[in-house]
Structures are given as C-alpha cells and as structure tokens.
Amino acid sequence: MKNFKEKANFLWSIADLLRGHYKQADYGKVILPLTVLRRLDFVLEPTKKKVLEAYTKHKGKKPEILEPILNSVAKVKFHNRSKFDFYELAKDPNHIAANLRNYINGFSISSKEIIDYFAFEDQIKKLDEYDLLYLVIKKFAEAGEMFKDVSSMEMGYIFEELIRKFSELSNETAGEHFTPREVIRLMVNLLFVNDKQVLRKKGIVKTLYDPACGTGGMLSVAEEYLHELNPDAKLEVFGQELNAESYAICKSDMLIKGQNPSNIKYGNSFTQDGLE
C-alpha cells in the first residue's frame, strides 16, 4: 500500500485544472466520478474489441438477453458497448462532450445506474462551458497505467484519501465519510475471533452486513480476512450508504470484484432499511 498516496496525489493534481472555475470543495464532483469511470474503463480494456464485435452481432436482441451476453464476453458483471474509451475520447477535442455522453450511455444497466448517482451530467456541461472537459479527460486517459495491478483494497485507500482531501476543503470532518483501514481490521478481527473454527470448514458460506458501508472498506477487509483464513469460503456482502458518491464508489467496487452490486442499498439505514 506504500504508493497509494502517490496515486491519490496524482489524481488530486488533476484538480489543479479546475482552479478558478470550481470551488475547492466541489473538486470531488469531477474527480471522484471520473476516477470510477477510468477504473471501469481499465478493467474493460482487455475485452473491449470482443465486446464491440459481440454487440454488432447481437444488438437486435432485447436488453435482458443482450446484457448477459456482453457481460459474458467482458468476463465481468458489466460492459461498455460504446466505440469510445478514454484513449479514443482523448483523440477528439472538438466533440468531447458528445463523445463522453455516448461513452457513459454505452455502459450496461448495472454500471450506468451507479454512474447516475454522481449526477455527473451537470459537471459535463460546466466543464465543457469552461473549455476544461477535454483537458481533464486527457489527463485521465494518461493515467491508465496507474490502475494497472491496483487491488480493490488499494483502490479503497485511494478513494478514501481523495475523500479525506475533499472533506478537508469543504470543512467537513473526514471521519464522517470513512473509517481508517487499521480500525476496520481491528473491528473485523474482533468480529470473527470467536468463529475461526467454523470459518475454516470446507464450503462455508457466510453473509456480512454493514449498515453504514461508505466506500465498502469494511466489506472488502472482511472478505480479504475470510479468504486468507479459508480460501474456499464464500462471503456474500450487503450494505447501505446515505452519501451518494460513497454509495456509487462502493457499488462500482462490488461490480469489479464480481459481487452482487444490488446488495448495496442507498439511503439512511436508521430510518429506512433497504434490505427489508
């Protein structure tokens, strides 16, 4: 994890392009959704060509049939059927807004719903109006190698470091948005300490619920802990989160890891249990 701050700082440096046009407290409205998009884009990169070929072949089919076909080709639980990716977007500065919208609309239903929680359309309009959209997208395109070999755990650290920085700028307490991983590890150890013998059983299946899951740190650490204890164990995770951006980040992580993103619910778990 030693270089996660370096990666977070690189993403943070992109926010320098926003100076003078955005309040510092609003930088996250641009950087967080684009970080999620770039990460999804990097995951889909190896199968992009095959997905486009499959889409050309099957695009007349109903969504409930087409989506699973393209997900299967992408080898993850989501896909993007737009001809654009970040590299292609960076090649055409004159049509960047239209092309970016085409790219976002090309995502599968499950991932498109996640992106919608960022309300990023407002930022596309604003960035385009200030002639910043292409510059920002170009920077994210150049960041491709940064996402190479980045585990979900490290990505969680990166998001939390960014959220911490944005929280400081908006005079919010960072603790409102995330719990340090060291604290999470302690909590997970305490949670499982009396069940180690049971958790080592072959084929064991467990569920875990975090009613204030944030970006999914507790769920990720718990999953890692259980797999270290028993590689054959299966942990199905559930969560609920009130902050729209943290919720979207958590769901995108579930998608990439192959977990069921519909297990993560939006809302206040104190007043409305999303899993009832």
Task: Please outline what is shown here.
The protein is mainly α. It is built from 14 helices and 3 strands.
List key phrases describing it.
about 5% strand, Ferritin, three-stranded parallel β-sheet, Rossmann fold, mainly alpha, globular, 2 domains
Can you give a write-up of this model?
There is one protein chain. The protein is mainly α. It folds into 2 domains: 164 residues, Ferritin; 94 residues, Rossmann fold (3-Layer(aba) Sandwich), CATH 3.40.50.150. The protein is built from 14 helices and 3 strands. α13 links the parallel β1 and β2. α3 packs antiparallel against α4, α7 packs antiparallel against α14 and α11 packs across α13.
Query: Structural class of the secondary structure composition?
Result: mainly alpha
**Largest sheet, order of strands side by side?**
1-2-3
Number of strand segments: 3
Q: What integer is the average pLDDT?
A: 90
- Listing every helix as H and every strand as E from the N terminus to the C terminus, the arrangement reads HHHHHHHHHHHHEHEHE
Into which percent range does the helicity of residues fall? 55-70%
Radius of gyration: 19 Å
